[in-house]
Design brief:
With 75 residues, the protein is an alpha+beta fold. The protein has helices at 23-28, 46-63, and strands at residues 2-6, 9-15, 32-33, 37-42.
């Protein structure tokens, strides 16, 4: 979930139903948390943050594809 906190600040929350370990993605964007629930505050506008997170998620999960189950990023 993405929430625009200000013009140049976006809060990102990541949740997984246990199929994907998500805290690696949170660390990639400057955050952290637990394996299946994590988040970050990104110092970028909403649209830039969404684009960045999706690019990093695609790269991260394609690199770790053999470690994670093959499930869509959203259902």
């Amino acid at each position: 979930m993405f929430v625009q906190v200000s013009l140049r600040r976006t809060k990102v929350s990541f949740r997984s139903k246990g199929n994907i370990i998500i805290n690696d993605l949170a660390r990639e964007v400057g955050g952290g948390g637990h394996q299946y629930a994590s988040g970050a505050i990104v110092q970028k506008p909403l649209e830039e943050t969404i684009k960045m997170v999706l690019e990093k998620a695609e790269r991260l999960f394609s690199e770790e594809g053999s470690k994670q189950q093959d499930v869509p990023l959203s259902e």
